[in-house]
Amino acid sequence: MAAYGAVDELNAAIGLARALDPTALGDALLDDIQRDLFAIGGQLASPEPAKVAKALAKAALSDERVAALERAIDSTEATLAPLDGFILPGGTPKAAALHFARTVCRRAERCVVTLSREAPPIAPSILPYLNRLSDLLFVLARGANAAAGRADVAW
Question: Model's pTM, two decimal places?
């Protein structure tokens, strides 16, 4: 329950970030991610996969989805000034919400790692997806600040 609960919380945190202005910033990408997270939650919440195989087939997460996150990271990062140190989470409300979603994503990743050690095998794309997603949320937060003309705050 901890794993799919954390993924559900992550989905809600991303929903909050999407609701903040500017709502168009990354909206289509975040919509796709929320749908992916719903599928991941469904996979993690299925203790007897054989009984719900048809539903799980709909919730399959391909390696292409991880690659899509990588491409989104690269394209967003290309628009930002290079980092030369750590930054504090925050800035605009949109950026702060994306930073918060990033931390929730890291927690979800830790919960899924724990689950993978204690339960039947999980789909191999889930952990890489969550790992890359947290990085994407970081660069999207930086992008939200940049779009608003706010500099990242150095630590």
Answer: 0.91
